[in-house]
Amino acid sequence: MSTVLSAENVVKRYGSFTALHGVSFALEKGKTLGVVGESGSGKSTLGRIVMRLMTLDKGKVFLGDDDLFALSRSELRVARRRIQLVPQDPRHALNPAMTVKDNLFFQLRAQGIARTTWNAKAEELLGQVSLPADYLHAYPHELSGGQAQRVAIARAIANKPEVLVCDEAVSALDKSVQAQVLNTFAELQSSLGVAMFFISHDLAVVEHISDDVLVLNRGTAVESGRTRDVLSNPQDPYTRELLAARHSVSAL
Amino acid sequence: MSATTSPLSTSSASGAQLPPGVPLVLDATTVSVAFRGKGSKFSTVVDSVGLGLEQSQVTVLLGESGSGKTVFARSITGMAPRGARVSGSATFDGLDLLALNGRELRKVQGNRIGMVPQDPNASLDPMRRVGGQIIETLMQHGKAASKAAAKERMLELLTLVHIHEPERVAKCYPHEVSGGMRQRIAIAIAICCDPELIVADEPSSALDASVGVRVVQLLDDLRERLNTAILFITHDIGIAALIASKPNDRVAVMLGGRIVELGFAHQVLRNPKHPYTRALLAAEPSAEVARGSLAVVPDEVRTERNWGPLQEVEPGHAVASLLDSSTDQKGGLA
Fold this sequence. Notes:
The complex is a heterodimer of chains A (252) and B (334). Chain A has a domain at 3-89 and 164-246: Rossmann fold (3-Layer(aba) Sandwich), CATH 3.40.50. Chain A contains 10 helices and 10 strands. Chain A has helices spanning 43-50, 73-79, 90-93, 100-110, 118-128, 145-156, 175-192, 203-209, 227-232, 237-246; strands at residues 3-14, 17-28, 32-37, 58-63, 66-67, 83-86, 163-167, 195-199, 212-217, 220-226. In chain A, the strands form 2 sheets. Chain A has a 6-stranded mixed β-sheet with strand order 6-7-8-3-9-10, sandwiched between helices. The mean pLDDT of chain A is 91. Chain B has 12 helices and 12 strands. At the A-B interface, helix 7, helix 8, helix 9 and helix 10 of A face helix 8, helix 9, helix 10 and helix 11 of B.
């Protein structure tokens, strides 16, 4: 298996506070790495660093074979097409003044896709996230949370990226909607072969969708490995606490 | 104390069959809540719901956003949002909370009914020290003879909610302590007058998962020690199972302003009968379900508003069936 995204000893400081104390991971092609941790554990910081939306103080990030922080600005612009973000709150991430279609067109332009194909492409993208083409003319505020998240996903997959960084992408959704969006992620993964860097505080979600898991606690990777191994035999007290809520139904 | 014995609450349209003889702290019958929408039209967000809350038991209101769980809980404790049109009755120790005026209500709220909010940042005064806020509540409700007695009680309360350095924390402003600690302080205020009922509205949702679990465990521990009933609102099935841990604790599943399933926690969460509850539980992600094949709650189950009154399917377990007048018959009791 080839590695599409990896980090080596990433250190990040905010002033005198160290947010990441040398975190490493490797994400394989088409696989999902679940990143779990409390708020303040550094998971979102790590998510931003692997997209080079933020600088780091030490360590390296590789997108495929490219050393992400060694790229020039123009090289970075091209490399970024291979890694896309699905944010927590799509209503904030989509431009509220643009229709769904224009939001998608904006991305297609940024991705350097030929203008003649935009109309067909936008419809195809909505189809891939199970939304009817009627929604092209809707504004973000007219969509439900689940629908808006689908549009954000459609935008992220516009140019068949190698990696999706999902930062709490299903956390704000109702349970019944969450299941639909998780199914969409799984379908896209098998049809596009996209790898996912899946940040979440919800162990149930991570357990379901991840091949591997990375547990962060105060900027340190306290556990990592195959999801099944880590969650069936957690070594870290924090992981164990998270699992307490997870298995409460079967304890009734 | 409230000695209203269970009248089986069957007068309500979606009434809850309770085992007879269980003392009720609060008995809500046929409660409807409507808000004025566009023009003069009212839209009903809680539709003729009945629920009895038993002494020292947990009752969980489980539902997705928009199901009416918060509006229902607030309305039956006399805290209906501004502009709400509330009908029905909510009997608390012989008093109908829906008929009381503001002054009479204030004798009950905060005193005999404690409230734990979702966001402790919104309920604590950011400009005042933690200890002072608890002392104020104690003095306001006449629970302490003197300032010194109130201070002593305040420190006792902080210890009770597992705050290790009560003296230091009492001198802190809310922004100086962590979110989990703020929620504990909010709980200390909720229990400071020894309430008979605590209403906790998603008390763990704004917190980190592990911190939230500890807050829920604290509430579970307190209701045993203080003999308090808890009305617990959540959208999280795992949290519902965590708080409704005792054999007599119950879960009410809300959908579209109605209770569609009500029973003991093990009945509702382990052996659900209503198609919506079943679908909701099946939609829970887990490692056992293959990726991409999570069950999805069918839209017709979610949006169906024609669920009729609750009917008992086994002792203590009641489920709403589809009304016959409805155009489609599918999705009824399985």
